[in-house]
Amino acid sequence: MTQNALAIIVLAAGQGTRMKSRLPKVLHPIGGRTLVGHVLATASRLGAETVEVVVRHERDQVVAALASEHPDAVIVDQDEIPGTGRAVQVALDALPSGFDGDVLVLSGDVPLLEEETLQGLVDAHRAAAAAATVLSAIVDDPTGYGRIIRDEAGDVARIVEQKDADDAEKATREINAGVYVFRAGLLRAELAQVTTDNAQGEMYLTTVIGLLREHDQKVAVEIAADTAATFGINDRIQLAEAARTLNDRIVRRWQREGVSIQDPATTWIDDDVTLAPDVTILPNTHILRASTVATGAVIGPDTTLVSTEVGEDAEVRRSEATLAVIGARATVGPFSYLRAGTTLGEGGKIGAYVETKNAQIGDDSKVPHLSYVGDATVGRGVNLGASTITANYDDVNKHRTEIGDEVHTGSHTVLVAPVRLGAGAKTGAGAVVRKDVPAGALAMSVAPQRNIEGWVQKNRAGTAAADAARADSAE
Ligand code: UD1
Ligand code: CA
Q1: Phi/psi at 35 (nearest 5 deg)?
Q2: 107 C-alpha to center of ligand 1: Å?
Q3: What is the residue with the minimal CA distance to atom 16 of ligand 1?
Q4: What is the pLDDT of residues 167-224, one digit of tens each?
Q5: Where, by residue number, does Mg(2+) bind (predicted)?
Q6: Residue 1 has pLDDT above 50, yes or no
Q7: Which of 126, 143, 303, 380 has its CA 20 to 30 A from that of 319?
């Protein structure tokens, strides 16, 4: 029974020097998830008995990141002996004692491989009863990768690393994707013979392939159908390329599901986003994290949504929203910023140059121009006049503003929180509202206007304004 058991080892202990980063390489994100997070998400669907992750470089940061998203992964610490071979060796030692099944080795920096490819590799390995099965790819530019060296019969003889390869070997375009299936017992035995005698002074996992062949074991190779999915990430250029490849995949998936995406090149959609059929996405739009968009909604151009929910037939143009909920048929933008905790009711409107935060705005309510609405509850059918501001912060604490149904505020109203406006209340233009306004009342706080006749002609004689005023009053 244990013969067919599957254990997965994810290598994530390397330093990632070529990234030149404070962040461990495997924690760099693409598509809203870390590189190693992508590998683990795929690995978790293969029905393995155990999934181990080997860590060392910045191990606490890596472990903390894994703890939240993949708490079931078993953490294994690599020691000071460097190399992928050593990483696998310590992981084998940490497997349940007596484990003698198949071991799938994945690299934490090869994030784009899909479940079918990995399952296919495991199936091929078992069907061929091989000691090891290597995933390879035929690439235009093999620089940096280990090369698959085949014998006259066309079977894999060994893998040679870039830094150890001669010119003829370097010309080989078949590369090692860094993903393999091994029989656990044979792998354990061969690793015991692997040394650090090579250009990098590391224990290479790839050395095992040549050793198995020397010991007359069968090594199979599967050439990946999707070459781009095998790409490993070692520097920022490859990081950007992988992000693009992943994004293309996500965009096409949603297009097939009935989403209109006008410009795939400038549309970025994270892996965890959900879009409904007949959503339209206009250029330069980023839909990130766990955002969801309902049918008929139009997003963009130039819009960023982060963990935001958009209702049916809503429109969000040239705006940014984080942790917000935008109701059905509501409209947002252009040029507005919905911060965390904003909810906009059905048929509501947040117009131009508006910032909102922790604000629940009711159905059919409008905040059309130049406003700040923070820590506020706004009822239904409300209209906040241009430049209405909730003054929610007194330098020490944040306070709430409560606005009842059908309230209309005059332009440039300042609502000094905590304050409450009853249903149907109104405020005059420029009102500074410091006291609660009862339902149906009109609040005014501005002194009556006084005109001082002839002031300009008298005090600004000789100016263009004075001349214009004189000409106008003479008519
Ligand atoms: C490795 C392969 C190479 C293959 C390429 C595919 C070896 C020796 N070479 O090269 O044949 O073409 O991947 O992408 O295996 N790691 C550890 N512990 C270590 C060193 C590395 O866990 O001591 C991890 C890294 O975090 C990384 C993975 O192993 O996730 C691969 O290491 P990396 O240094 O990137 O190997 P490559 O030079 O890319
Ligand atoms: Ca690599």
Answers
A1: -55, -50
A2: 7
A3: 14
A4: 999 999 999 999 999 999 999 999 999 999 999 999 999 999 999 999 999 999 999 9
A5: 109, 234
A6: no
A7: 380
